[in-house]
């Protein structure tokens, strides 16, 4: 690692580069406070420029392979200016060392507090008020004790009508699904034109059905299915199912890492082991008679009529989604593993992903381009642990 006594930079182990950058940034912040009062405006301008370079390189980065290719050039340039400043202000070395120690401790404490806040936010997002803790259990009990004559949804003739507005919602959260459906219909100009297809797991199937049987959407059609009904979806057909059952993936999601705690705990949420999280890649098989489907996540609240989305011309594209290039961490190079030559060859590292909260899918175009086969190709060519940076 570089210390304040270094006069040059030599790249070391790749897992130390981020630490080197952060160390340089800390030293630069300390020096910047001394320079203006002494009239070294040239140094100030140069140092601020180098600080911006380092900050941009670190933005959204958690591991070395996410850093830009010219990072070592940036480090050498920063080390050069830091060395010059130290020579000018060598009599301040003791004060600088003390300030650097204090700054290092403060930044570590800040990072620890950020991680605690992130974990707390994750817990809060999943938490339920006390009076709702047994909701799913009560609904399940009510479903199995109620008359079989009361277990059918109305408007089932609409389920395969391609002229209507169809929604795909895959969730194991009864309340979240209810919010999505209700908020959509509240703002719909013609509720009777909307059809909701909900898929859940076997554990929550009875509760999900009971909720919508007891609280039926006005005029709209609703369908509740469980994953087990899709008998064609198995490890022989879907490579991802085979990978999700591997010991590596189970360890990744259920064992706490001892050597390097995650900066973002959501990446280790066991929900990603559920096939519910991957059903979106099989929409044409789930809805063989539909041409368009609006896929929605269960964490959205609709605030306007969504009917116009079915009139959007996708111009031969398979899906329409919200662009997410506003933040650096949405770039492919922030989460795809570009050290894999196959990924580096096929993907643009500066291209961006998209938000999956709400996507319009043209299923006819999907079938024509055989996108599911493309998905399977990548699952077979590159394992999940080789595909993403965070695994």
UniProtKB/TrEMBL annotation:
This is Hexosyltransferase. Its main location: Golgi. It holds the Pfam family GAUT_1. It comes from the Eukaryota. It comes from Aegilops tauschii subsp. strangulata. Gene3D superfamilies: Spore Coat Polysaccharide Biosynthesis Protein SpsA, Chain A. It is found in: Golgi apparatus membrane. It is a single-pass type II membrane protein. Keywords: Cell wall biogenesis/degradation, Glycosyltransferase, Golgi apparatus, Transferase. One of its GO terms (biological process) is cell wall organization. One of its GO terms (cellular component) is Golgi membrane.
